[in-house]
Amino acid sequence: MGGRGFTINLRWLTALVGLFIGIGLNADTTDGWQDLLADDTLAAWRNYQADSVSSSWTVQNGILKRSGRRAGDLITRQQYRDFELELEWRVETGGNSGIFFRATEDEKRIYMSAPEVQILDDNHHRDGHSPLTSAGSNYGLHPAPRGIARSAGAWNQIRLRVVGNQVTQWLNGQQIVDYTLGSEDWNQRVADSKFSAWPAYGKAARGHIGLQDHGDPVAFRNIRIRVLDPES
User: Fold this and answer.
1) Backbone angles phi, psi at 159, to 5 degrees
2) pLDDT attached to residue 229
3) CATH class of 33-227
4) 61 φ/ψ sector (left φ>0, alpha ψ -120 to 50, else beta)
5) Mean pLDDT, range 32-57, rounded to an integer
């Protein structure tokens, strides 16, 4: 009786474990999302043109924070071509930061090669006076509409989709920017901006995701990315 009961329970337990493993595998393989702050570590990151992460970047309870001095820009260890990135960000009063993509390390500064999704407290920073440099804009080139960014201290959601030369940005669930790298419109906007001084700007077909150290406290959470098929 005891032996038989043990056999039945063992079979049941084995089946149950298999079910959970199957669910886990399906979750990992069907949607393809990668948590870039997995296990509360910065294993997926390093500083720009460095092999490690400065002590001014910390992650705890799923929240990445930039504090202290000389944190330096963060970049992913992996490079991406076609991808979808989602994250939440929060700044303090007057705070400024940004999200870079397809960044290379051939230039002295990350912004000399990589386009930037602006992170900003629009209400208390001078860049908030212009839609071209307001929160959610493609910094300096494509404006963000008003009334979508939340105030300092509140979390904002970003979704960034890059497939081939097509770039689409969402802020707090609303699509706000859509443009084509290398198009006539793109080239003209770059030519009329400060980015014209940097020939490599926006030219890389693949590169790192970057988080900007602009000298202000900033926090990120729920940072995840998935690689996309160019046809998707």
Assistant:
1) -130, 130
2) 81
3) mainly beta
4) left
5) 97
